[in-house]
Design a protein that fits this description.
The complex is a heterodimer of chains A (215) and B (277). Chain A is mostly helical. Chain A is built from 10 helices and no strands. Helices cover 70% and strands 0% of the residues of chain B. In chain B, helix 6 packs across helix 10. Chain B starts with a helix and ends with a helix. Classes of the chains: A mainly alpha (215), B mainly alpha (277). The interface between A and B is large, with 81 and 75 residues. The structure holds zinc ion.
């Protein structure tokens, strides 16, 4: 029985990356932390926001596409997020965490988007997602998995907006639950419970869709 | 343990950041309960499907729009005014750093020299360039230095004026010396504690490895650990202390192993090191 359980392998979250030890580091890279860069932006060194854009627009866009199911909307919202960073730069705090702040702004901007009449996110055509994927799978594999991606995107779209948000934040954005709790303005315990409840909800919808007869 | 209790641990078991930690009872229940196995496996499958979803990239339009917006903002009158005042302030801050950095270096070393006073004050995670926090920290450290009666000779006064490549060369040269004197070791520990570049801090740590047998070196690494912000350097420091079998590091490692603010890789490294000490 124990052997049977050990076959259940936990899929590593993509955010967990093996870090090299004492790796040779590019000596020219006097890398400033995200936080240091954002403080510099706040103090008027606006070019520092360019570096932050280069570091973060990819994951931010990924979050927004999965959240809205709409590539064009995700791009507009990402643009709004960086616009608001500039506009509200003086509100960035000394003890802040840049990533948490970015997703805080993203969440507000996405909420505005949904309020403007895009109440229900549409499922993006997964072929479209694949076409621009960072790591395009082999064509044959793509055909086999497209249906799964489409089903999951539909399931995500049917999920409650808050549930979808916390699930995507917890799974993809390299945020700790303490940071997620900060973004959602709730306790760490509540964030964990909500994330797990959202996963169960997604599982229910996803499995229901899988068993629905094909029209 | 019943099904409900076992299922309460599922979120921890499904999260690779927490899956490794025990939950022995839940695992035992899971091993013998087909219902819970089905529940666990369906959640796990959903996560796998979620992870497998392709992550699209934005069109070039996003970058174009962003930089256009940035340019526009830079040329707005308000921004120009702020940029001007910032230059003044930057000059003031760098002057402070100039005067205080060598004192801070000496004070950190001083911490290491105090026999029996090895507990480090709670880490205040402030970036090195946060002048206000730095000044406060330095003030408390200064008191310790004056008690010590001697300043250790690492002079960041000269160091910080040199470009990074130069500083790195200095660190690497020190590393090749067969019998480095105390001055060289002090310089390396000073670089580890205070150099703004993570590369140089890593280089200094590597250069210190052959001298891990010396009490002052271990004390210096231990004193630098709580103020280090870069996870890569933190993990390397922890590995250093574990390899040196420094029992003095236990309280600091215990604190790090549970620190919510620490990177998961740092917490794991601290836990691992604690089993080795
Ligand atoms: Zn059970």
């Amino acid at each position: 029985m124990i052997a049977a359980f050990e076959e259940i392998r936990v899929h590593p979250s993509p955010s967990v990356v093996e870090k090299p030890r004492l790796a040779p580091v590019d000596t020219s890279a006097e890398q400033r932390s995200d936080h240091a860069l954002m403080l510099a932006v706040r103090e008027g060194e606006l070019d520092a926001l360019g570096e932050l854009f280069e570091r973060h627009h990819g994951p931010l866009f990924g979050f927004l596409v999965k959240h809205t199911g709409d590539r064009a909307a995700a791009e507009d919202i990402a643009q709004t997020v960086f616009q608001r960073m500039l506009k509200y730069r003086h509100t960035y705090r000394d003890e802040g965490c840049f990533t948490a702040w970015m997703y805080h702004l993203a969440r507000r901007s996405a909420a505005d988007h949904f309020r403007k009449g895009n109440a229900t996110p549409q499922a993006t055509d997964p072929a479209d997602l694949n076409e621009h994927a960072d790591d395009t799978p082999h064509a044959a594999h793509r055909a086999a998995t497209n249906d799964d991606h489409a089903l999951l995107q539909t399931a995500l779209a049917r999920l409650d907006c808050d549930d979808r948000e916390i699930l995507l934040l917890a799974r993809f954005q390299e945020l700790s639950f303490a940071e997620i709790a900060g973004i959602l303005e709730c306790s760490v315990g509540a964030a964990k419970v909500r994330a797990h409840r959202a996963l169960r909800e997604l599982r229910d919808i996803y499995f229901r869709l899988q068993n629905e007869p094909i029209p | 343990m019943n099904c409900a209790q076992a299922r309460d641990t599922f979120s921890a078991l499904l999260d690779t950041r927490t899956a490794a930690t025990a939950h022995a009872e839940a695992r035992a229940h899971l091993a013998g309960c087909p219902d819970c196995q089905r529940e666990f496996s369906s959640l796990n499958q959903t996560l796998a499907a979620l992870d497998a979803m392709p992550t699209p990239s934005p069109t070039p339009r996003l970058r174009q729009n962003f930089y256009a917006m940035l340019e526009e903002e830079k040329h707005s009158a308000a921004s120009l005014r702020i940029a001007a005042t910032r230059e003044h302030r930057a000059r003031r801050v760098s002057l402070w750093g100039w005067i205080l950095s060598p004192i801070a270096a000496a004070a950190l070393l001083g911490l290491g020299f105090f026999v029996g006073q090895r507990s480090i004050p709670a880490a205040t995670p402030a970036p090195a360039n946060d002048a206000v926090a730095m000044r406060q920290e330095i003030k408390t450290l200064q008191d310790q230095v004056s008690k010590m009666g001697q300043l250790v000779g690492y002079s960041l006064l000269q160091q910080q004026q040199r470009p990074a490549n130069d500083r790195l060369r200095g660190v690497l040269t020190s590393a090749t010396l067969e019998n480095p004197n105390d001055q060289v070791l002090n310089n390396l520990i000073g670089a580890l504690a205070l150099d703004p570049s993570a590369n140089i801090r890593l280089g200094a740590l590597e250069a210190l490895y052959p001298h891990a047998g010396q009490e002052v070196v271990r004390a210096g690494v231990l004193a630098s650990l709580p103020r280090e912000q870069n996870p890569l350097v933190q993990v390397s420091m922890i590995d250093f202390l574990a390899a040196a079998r420094d029992r003095e590091a236990v309280p600091v490692l215990e604190k790090l192993s549970t620190a919510a603010a620490a990177d998961p890789s740092v917490r794991d490294a601290a836990k691992r090191a604690l089993t080795q000490l």
